[in-house]
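debug: dumping io for the single-chain case to check the tokenizer round-trip. Nothing else runs in this session.
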Amino acid sequence: MIVASPTKEADMKSLIPLLAALSLAACATTAPSESARLALYQSHAGEPVKQIRYLNAMGWERVDGEHVVLNLLPRESWLLKLSGPCLDWGSGSPFLAFSSQTGWLISKFDSIKVSGSPVTCRIDEIRPIDMHAVHAAEKQMRDQPASGT
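debug: decoded output
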């Protein structure tokens, strides 16, 4: 089993622009935009890994047409970058199908399909996500006093 190394704590200087952008997005709408959510996940994602052990997923979240957060265990989440916008075809289907029959998902080899979609997309990249850091950043954004909104 390939185990991804834990992500390093992000440098606060690099998070300030991200937090500012997400705060502005929160003022404009009730939910962050796809690009803001992707930036949040990417800022808390580790280096790409070649493969991960996959048996049963607890769930998944569409980030945008080409990115999925796959939750395998309560503390194990992965950001999958796909080869194309195959998530736009699923009509809100709650089911994902993976091409792997081995119990492993391998980047550049395995693919993903949303139930009811005619499109299949290759998994181009797999990155571990520090979901504790993501939740802490979301909490920090919610706890900031709104200014000018």
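debug: round-trip ok. Confidence is low (pLDDT under 50) at residues 1-21, 24-29.
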